[in-house]
């Protein structure tokens, strides 16, 4: 029973620290989007329309790993 109590205390402390961090970020307006250079757009969107040989081989390997029959 002692280990269950220790786990409960650790989880409670973790929850308190996470809530404290969320409140701090909300209060001080910590906006991490300004610091990020990630725009979310593809560098070359036209390249996504065609698959190269390496991509097709990787797809075949993944389908084989998950039991899909590629002969059909």
Mean pLDDT, nearest integer?
83
The N- and C-terminal alpha carbons lie at a distance of 57 Å
- How many individual β-strands? 0
Beta strand %? under 5%
Shape: flat
- The Rg value, from CA coordinates, equals 24 Å
Low-pLDDT regions: none
**SS summary, helix count:** 2
Tell me roughly what share of residues is in helical segments: 55-70%
H and E string:
HH
Summarize the structure.
The protein has helices spanning 2-28, 53-65. With 72 residues, the protein is mostly helical.
What this model shows, in words?
- This protein has helices at 2-28, 53-65.
- With 72 residues, the chain is an all-alpha fold.
- It has a domain at 1-31.
- The radius of gyration is 24 Å and the shape is flat.
């Amino acid at each position: 029973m002692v280990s269950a109590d220790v786990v409960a205390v650790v989880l409670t402390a973790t929850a308190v620290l996470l809530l404290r961090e969320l409140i701090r970020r909300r209060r001080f307006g910590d906006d991490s989007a300004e610091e990020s250079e990630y725009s979310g757009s593809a560098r070359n969107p036209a390249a996504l329309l065609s698959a190269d040989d390496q991509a097709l081989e990787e797809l075949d390997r993944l389908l084989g790993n998950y039991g899909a029959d590629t002969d059909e």
